[in-house]
Amino acid sequence: MELGPLLQRTSAAVHATMNPEQVYVCLWSHADAVPGHLHFVVQPACRDDMIEHNAYGPVLQLAMSQANRVPSAAAVEEVCTRLRAELSDKEAH
Fold it and tell me: How far apart (Å, rounded) are the C-alpha atoms in residues 27 and 85?
């Protein structure tokens, strides 16, 4: 699968499972200020987070990072289970 369709499919799965206001898809390519490898971030942007941090876009991402709230392992697993199911459904069609 090509990168564009993969990111679109992943973004659609995040939207379907988490129901955010928007889904951000970002490319980060620096480690220690040196380009070395790529990270694609597919991130739900939820209204509650926008309100809490009074921000959106890159400013919201920075504020959420600085808040340093890490979800529990159980919460991560629950979202991963829902995403796997959503992506499997999309594969079948």
Answer: 25
- Rounded mean pLDDT, 50-64: 94
3-state secondary structure 4-70: HHHHHHHHHHHHHHHCCCEEEEEEEEEECCEEEEEEEEEEEECHHHHHHHCCCHHHHHHHHHHHCCC
- Could you count the other beta carbons within 10 Å of the beta carbon of residue 60? 20
pTM for the whole structure: 0.81
Radius of gyration of the chain (CA): 15
Q: How far is CA 46 from CA 36, 49, 81, in A?
A: 30, 5, 20
- The C-alpha atoms of residue 22 and residue 14 are separated, in whole angstroms, by 10
Instruction: Judge contact between 11 and 25, C-beta under 8 A.
Output: yes
